[in-house]
Amino acid sequence: MLVVPLIERKRDGGALTPEEWSALVAAYTDGRVPDYQMAALLMAVLLRGLERHELAALTDAMLASGQRLAFDSWTTRRVDKHSTGGVGDKVSLVLAPLVAACGVAVPMMSGRGLGHTGGTLDKLEAIPGFRTGLSLAEAKAQVMKLGCVMIGQTPEIAPADGRLYALRDVTGTVEAIPLIAASIMSKKLAEGLNALVLDVKRGSGAFLPKLEQSLELARTMIALGEDRGCPTVALLTAMDRPLGRACGNALETEEAILALRGEGPEDLMEVTYALGVEMLLAAGIEKTSKKARQRLTNALASGLAAEKFEQIIAAQGGNPKTVEDPSVLPQAKEVEVYAAPRTGVVTHVEPRIIGRAVVAMGGGRLKVEDEVDPTVGFVITVKPGDKVLAGEPIASVFARDPGGMKLGFEALQLAIGVKDKLSVKPLPLISHRVSKDGVEKLV
Ligand code: URA
Hints:
Distance between the termini: 51 Å
Shape: globular
CATH topology of the largest domain: Pyrimidine Nucleoside Phosphorylase, Chain A, domain 2
Low-confidence stretches: none
Number of helices: 17
CATH class of the largest domain: Alpha Beta
CATH architecture of the largest domain: 3-Layer(aba) Sandwich
Bound molecules: uracil
Radius of gyration: 21 Å
Mean pLDDT: 97
Number of strands: 14
Structural class: alpha+beta
Largest sheet: 5 strands, mixed
Oligomer: single chain
C-alpha cells in the first residue's frame, strides 16, 4: 500500500476517504505498514485534525480490525465505563466489580499507561498472575458467569487500537480529540454493550486541559456511540489534582482494594458512585439516582463488591488473596516520607508532574518494548486547600533505587505547592453531565 501520499495529503490539510482509512488501518494492524509511517500520519492528524466523516471511518476501521463480543440472546444488560485518562485514576478497578455486584454485566476492555496517565491493565497486572490477554471465548464465558471481565486489546479484540495506542504513547501523539475518541470508542463498541458511560477528565492533568476541549471530546464520543446504537453519556470530572492518594500501579491497585473494602478516599468514592449511578440508570436496573446510589453503597458495605473482585482475579489467573491481603502485591525496594517544606496551605498538587515522574521512575513506558515496574509511585495525602505544618509528612515516595527516589523527591518539590493562601480554586470534582440532549451543569 502506498502510504506516503496519504501522509502528505493529511500533512497538507486534506482528507482521506473511508476506503483509504479502512485499507490503512487493516494494513497497519497486520504489519504491512511500518510504525514510522503510521507515527508520521498520527502526527499529521494531531496537527490537522480529522473531518467528521474521517473520524467515523477511522473508528469503524479500528472496530472492524477485530471481532466483537456477541452475547446473542443473553438478556443481562451490559454497561461499561471508560475514562479519557488521569493520574491516580483507579476508578475502573473499583467500579467494574461494584457494578457487576449490582447485577449489571461489565465487559471491560481497558488500556495501558498512556503518556503521563496510568492504565487499568498495568494496574491489574500488578496482581501476581493476573492475565488481561484473554481470548474472545474466555472473555465472553467469564462475563456470562461472573458478570464482569477486565481485559485488554488482543489480536482478536480491538487489535488496531492495541497497536496504535502503544505507538501514540511513545510518539507524542496522544493529545488529539479524534485520536482519543476513535481509540476509546472502537474498543467500547467491540464490547457488545447496551450503554456506555464516559469519565471525561478536565484540568491541567487531562490530555485536553481546557473545559471546551473536554466538552468537545465528550460530544464527539457520544455522537460516535449514539450513531452506532450505543446510548452514551459522559460526566466531566476534575483532573487538576490526582484522584485519591496513590499514583503508581501496585499502589493504586492497593487503594482500589481498600476502596472495595469500604476504606476508599472520599474523592475516589464520589467519582466511582457518580459513574456507577449512571451505569445502573443506563442499564435500567434502577429508575432514580437515589435508589441507584443506595444499591451501590449496599453492594460495597455488604462485601459483595470486594468478593466480586476476588472472583474476577481468581478467574483471570491472579492471586485472589490480594483482596484480603494487599501486601501480596509487589513492594517497592525503597520508601521514604516527604514532608511539607513550610507551614501554609497546599495550593496545588500538579498531576502531570506526578504522572511523568511515575513514568520516569520506571512505572510507565518511554519505548514500546519497555517493561513497567509496578512498585514505584507516590502516596500523596494532601489536596489543594489543605492546611499543613512545616515538617509534617504529606507524601511517601516508592522507588526501586536511589536514583528513582531522587527523581521522586524532585517531582514532589515541583508538584506540591505550599503558600500562605490558595490562589486558584480547585475544580469541582464532578462538574458537567453530557448526553445526546445537551450539557447539564452539576455545580
Ligand atoms: N483512553 C483510551 O483508551 N485511549 C485514549 O486515547 C485515551 C484514553
